[in-house]
Amino acid sequence: MIGQTASAAIVHTATIDETISTAFTPIADFISGIIFYSVKIGDPESLSYMEIPVIVTWLVVAALFFTIYLKFQNVRGIKHAINLVRGRYSEPADAGEVSHFQALTTAISGTVGLGNIAGVAVAVSIGGPGATFWMIVVGFLSMSTKMAECTLGVKYRIERADGSVSGGPMYYLRDGLAALGKRRLGKFLAVLFALFCIGGAIGGGNMFQANQATSQIINVTGGADGPLGPWRFVIGLVFALAVAAVIIGGIKSIAKVTEKIVPFMAVLYIIGCLAVIFTNFTAIPDAISQIFVGAFNPEGIAGGFVGVLIQGFQRAAFSNEAGVGSASIAHSAVKTKEPATEGFVALLEPFIDTVVICTMTALAIVITGTWRDTSSAAGVETTSAAFKTVAPWFPILLAVAVVLFAFSTMISWSYYGMKATGYLFKDSPRAELGFKVAFCMFTVVGASLSLGPVIAFSDAMIFAMAIPNVIGLYLMARVIKKEIFSYRAKVESGEFAMVEK
């Protein structure tokens, strides 16, 4: 009886899946085609052929601009950022809802996801080991963009009488550009950003995560023929209930969970990667050589040097989301009276996401050589094969990491979507509650169906957020620079000093 019910459910699910995919494919292709438009160079049949995604160029150029414009605060400010996260400059009476550490872990949980595992495997499989080098370079540059957007997020946030705050690109695009005499442009960009943010939160920040985490759970429990194979809907329901239990309490509840999950999942995953690396320690020198040689002189890679460069750039830009503006929403909730403090804290985010976690994934698959295996599609399976070199059961640890990465991403993106909804509906509690309910329903839908075109569309929505956000960052570059450098002067003069503990 159970078998018949399961079979009926699978057939019904496949029918719904096909119906939605058929209806949505033209829309998804059109939107994705615009956001991920690539400049094509060379003959498609030749090895020199390459495609350069415009959105990647948009994000990397912004990261390079702010690195130079802010005089390399991404490197010079790391020590001060760590002191801020440790609470050495925190005053409990400052306005805001969460600590620097909680704001950082909430933002990291929104960016550290499956891209750090599956996306890196794809980048190395296509671009070769040299892509790792360029990924790290962009990881460092992206720290500057993140610093810029999170400084503005706090500067233009709304502080209410009950102590709650709302901030992020919607607010600094509206109010920051209005202060520069560009009120209409600011309002237009803010609404555009909020709409894209809601779409990205429901799709890439929720459905995609639920879908991939469910698939990984089913894979390690015997696949489609295993005991959980027919029960994607039930797994999705469990995810939805867990997400609902956390997000019902708002940012304080989310921050309390992320401050525990993020350090645990990051340490768990890094330990797993280190086990892979040291199990194959004799291959370490050759792997490092492949990364450096492949970065400047790749052989057999489509597009040659530029091809491997683009793969590294793309993975870093898509992973840490610097320039997208999403993290600024989480960082805006911090307790502080100096906006630039959160700019410094935020620069640690791409460092942890890209320079540390993505690099660990790349090292694991380069050292084990699993990136050369073309018998299956590059992705989580490539990383899973690397973990299997330690012990047959070791991929289970990877599955645990995937589930934690996905869950933490979902709860952070629920907050981003809720704040964007609040902005559009003037902080209406009903609208925000409606978004939470819809978010949890789409968690179940995402886990149950493959929905490839829908996910492609929602992924495009996330990176569409970068268009209004980066335009605003360029227009407010002087404001950002003034805020950061006047703060640094206060720290150096002792006006803003460490607090006594």
TrEMBL record:
Compartmental location: Cell membrane
One of the record's GO cellular component terms: plasma membrane
Any GO MF annotation of the entry: amino acid:sodium symporter activity
Annotated keywords: Cell membrane, Membrane, Symport, Transmembrane, Transmembrane helix, Transport
Family label: Belongs to the alanine or glycine:cation symporter (AGCS) (TC 2.A.25) family.
Alphabetized Pfam families for the sequence: Na_Ala_symp
Protein name: AGCS family alanine or glycine:cation symporter
Transmembrane segments: 52-70, 188-208, 228-249, 261-281, 287-310, 351-371, 391-416, 437-456, 462-480
Domain of life the protein comes from: Bacteria
